[in-house]
DNA sequence: GGTCCTTTGAAGGGC
DNA sequence: GCCCTTCAAAGGACC
């Protein structure tokens, strides 16, 4: 596994004191030993041959949320950090604060490595769809662990970024609903500066429009 | 290089 | 209060 040095990143070391996530090593619904086939076996056999993931750490979680995570070097997957690394470079030293993950996102993060090659070969969309089904099949007790952790991370995020709002990461709504919108690049600007473009459900372009900046 | 796909849940704005 | 929209994650596919 590659190692990324994030030691030059910003101040707070609040995550340093957090213990490893206490999740799945004791999860009772699935066998704790690696099973041949992983989720693919689950699909093809209708049973639950399950490849148990090693517990993820807060270091890895924080990498997904904010690659400016302070502290020494962390053992990270280059792939898992690629998008944010690209975005960071794009933002040219400006800090981009991501939304805290919800319960399902934590579940996906943890279980994605367990998905077998058959499902994985169909792409991330298929993997996520499969994990969505898996999520729904979990007991409330099993899901509660993820809801609790998501809530804890949400509060932690709020503590670390008290002024932050989801709205700051929005590309379209802030621009389309007010002439005094703001966005991730210029959160305090008095004019809207469009930074993205997406297709709506009708296949039409939304996002950047003439006169927005 | 940028965007889509695909999921669930959180959050915010409009009415 | 409800509805709609966006974003959080992943990485291959596509333009």
UniProtKB/TrEMBL annotation:
GO terms for cellular component: beta-catenin-TCF complex; chromatin. It comes from the Eukaryota. The keyword Transcription regulation applies. Its main location: nucleus. Keywords: Activator, DNA-binding, Nucleus, Transcription, Transcription regulation, Wnt signaling pathway. GO terms for molecular function: DNA-binding transcription factor activity, RNA polymerase II-specific; RNA polymerase II cis-regulatory region sequence-specific DNA binding. It is found in: Nucleus. One of its GO terms (biological process) is canonical Wnt signaling pathway. Residues 97-165 bind DNA. Pfam families: HMG_box (PF00505). PROSITE patterns: HMG_BOX_2. Residues 97-165 form the HMG box domain. SMART domains: HMG. Belongs to the TCF/LEF family. This is HMG box domain-containing protein.
